[in-house]
Amino acid sequence: MSESPQALIARAQELADDVLFPGSLEADTAEEVPHAQLQAIADAGFYGISTQCNAATIAAIIEAFASGCLTTTFVFTQHLGACAAAYHSDGPVRDELAAAMVAGQIRGGVAFAHMLRPGTPLTTAVPTGDGWLYNGTAPWVTGWGHIDVVHAAARHNEDIVWALIDARESATLVSTRIRFAVVDATQTEVLAYRNHVVPGSRVTKVENYESWKARYQLGLRTNGSLALGVAARCCALLNNPVFDERLRTTRNQLNAIEPADGAAMATARAAASLLAVDAAVALVAQTGGSAVMLSDHAQRLMREAMFVMVQGQTPAIKAEMLDQLETR
Question: How far is Cα 147 from Cα 170, in angstroms, rounded to an integer?
Answer without folding.
Answer: 16
